Structure formats: structure tokens, C-alpha cells
Amino acid sequence: MEQTQSYGLDRRGFLGGLLPACAVTCMGSFRLSRGRSTRAGAAARQDTHKFDAIIDPAPTWRRLEVLKIARFLEFSQYLADQMGREQVIEILKSFQSQRNASQARRATQRLGANDFAAFKRFYDPAIPALNRIVTMEIVESSDTAYEWRITECINTEPYLRANAADLGYAAACFGDYAFAESFNPKIRLTRNMTLMEGHTYCNHRYTWEG
Predict the structure, then answer these.
(1) Domains in the chain, start-ordered, CATH in brackets?
(2) CA–CA separation, 100 vs 105, rounded Å?
């Protein structure tokens, strides 16, 4: 059954003070330099502050995501104990919707357009940054529809292992609706399956209703 989402919640002041750390731990991107340890390299880095040293060996993308989500879940579970799980979930949904809406507006500025063709370019599975975190299969691509299936997502496993799919959906999936609408109000997302909710894939279908 299709899900309809509401994200204009009445908690903006509280949210702004409560969740800046989640913005980093939920969905932040890491750009990590990789290099091999050699005596010459070590000598060249002698003047580098220890806080700025390159991690060697560098962790995998999966490991980075596990570490980020573990910290986020620790904080979220604490909040759930203090204020109730449902309230935390609603706050996360509101926060991610606002955050994704802002990201969509910045994306249209970078692309110089907000039409359906620009939206499809943004979600091109050939883009390395996207391909690194999900495995996508394009089901349909036309002037009015863009549908794909996600069969692997780097975010999903840590949440499912922690029995926290509800928090994961709120933090990682829910904001997709706000992103589409903010990119262009004529774009509509329909989705009734997600890996986070235990399905075999996520079925994102975007339609242009212009």
C-alpha cells in the first residue's frame, strides 16, 4: 500500500537544538584519502599533526557507515528511553524531511535546472558516489517516469542488526519524499517496499506530473 508522508511538524525549535549531531552521524559523507605506509611517506608526514594523520589502513565504506550508525543509534536509543520512541521517530522524520528539502534545493542550483531530466541526472546510477552506497537497477526511464529498484543499501544492515528498522526508516528513508517534492513539486514519489522494512528491494517510482 502506498505511503503518504507528512513532514510539517510542530517541533522546529526543539529539533534545531537537539539534532545537529544527527546530521553528521546519519547521512554525512566521508571523503577519505588512501595511501600506503612507506618510510618515505612517514618521513613526509612527520610535521603533520596526529589528528590530521591519514588512517592507515583506511577503513572500508561499510565500516565507516557501521561506525556512524552505531553512534547515532546510541544517542537515539537514549532519547527514546527519555521521551518515548514514537516521539523520537517523529522528530527524526521532521528533521530528515527538512534536511532533504534543503539538499534538493541546493542540487537544483548546482544542476542549473529542476526539471525531470535534471532529476534523473542527479540519480544516475553511474555516478560513483551513488554507486558506492547502493546497488540500483533501472526498471523504467522515460520522459514522465523514472523507476528503480535498490537491492543493496549500505545504510540498511546496521539498523536491521540493531533491531532498529523504525529508526532507520525515519533517519534514512523517509526524507526521500521531501527531496522529490522540493526538487520540483511536479515530481511524485510512490514507494511501498523498502529494504529497511524487510522487503527484498526498495521500489522507488518517480513520476512527472507536469
Answers:
(1) 12-208 (3.30.1380.20)
(2) 9
Give 46-87 pLDDT, tens digit per residue. 688 988 888 877 889 899 999 999 999 999 999 999 999 999
Give this prediction's pTM: 0.76
Contact 118, 111 (CB under 8 A): yes
> In whole angstroms, what is the distance from residue 137 CA to residue 149 CA?
5
- Ranges of H-type helices in the chain: 12-18, 20-27, 39-44, 61-83, 85-111, 116-122, 128-131, 156-161, 165-168, 176-183
CA atoms within 13 A on the CB side of 164: 24
Query: Measured between alpha carbons, how far is residue 200 from residues 117, 147, 163 in Å?
Result: 28, 16, 17
Q: In whole angstroms, give the CA distance from residue 25 to residue 66.
A: 10
